[in-house]
Specification:
2 domains; 9 strands; 2,3-Dihydroxybiphenyl 1,2-Dioxygenase, domain 1; 5-stranded mixed beta sheet; 2 helices; 19% helix; Glyas_Bleomycin-R_OHBP_Dase
């Protein structure tokens, strides 16, 4: 079904609240090649953000506010993980090994999932689930 004159819908970005904004920015830059904008600060609310851009132009907005500091639990509705395609099983294995060596918890895998993905799940320094996919 098409609609005359309608523009294509594209995904722009996802947002993630974090406690330590600078550490999160450095994490995504170091391990996933993110390019950060100059950042934004709203002095009225205390909100601080960075937009992180990844190789294929996908964007993740990381945000922090002094009044938001309770993490979501694993068994709650809402976003569950952020996934990065690394291109090969070898690349997944190497990234997992590097993250583990640097002290990050490997929560699952690497493994082949029931739907055929080769993936691993690593937790960042705040417990956010980062999925690495071949």
């Amino acid at each position: 079904m098409t609609t005359t004159g309608a523009s294509a819908v594209t995904f722009d970005h996802a947002g993630l609240y974090v406690v330590d904004l600078e550490r999160s920015r450095i994490f995504f830059q170091t391990y996933f090649g993110a390019i950060a904008n100059a950042g934004y600060h709203n002095p009225r609310t205390g909100l601080r953000t960075y937009f992180l851009t990844f190789g294929d132009q996908a964007r993740l907005e990381i945000m922090t506010r002094p009044d938001i500091d309770v993490p979501m639990g694993e068994r709650q509705l809402g976003w569950h993980h952020v996934a990065f395609t690394l291109g090969s099983r070898t690349a997944v294995d190497e990234k997992v090994a590097r993250l583990a060596a640097d002290g990050y918890e490997v929560a699952d895998g690497p493994r082949v999932t029931g739907d055929g993905y080769y993936e691993a799940v690593v937790l960042d320094h705040e417990g956010n689930r980062i999925e690495l996919v071949a």
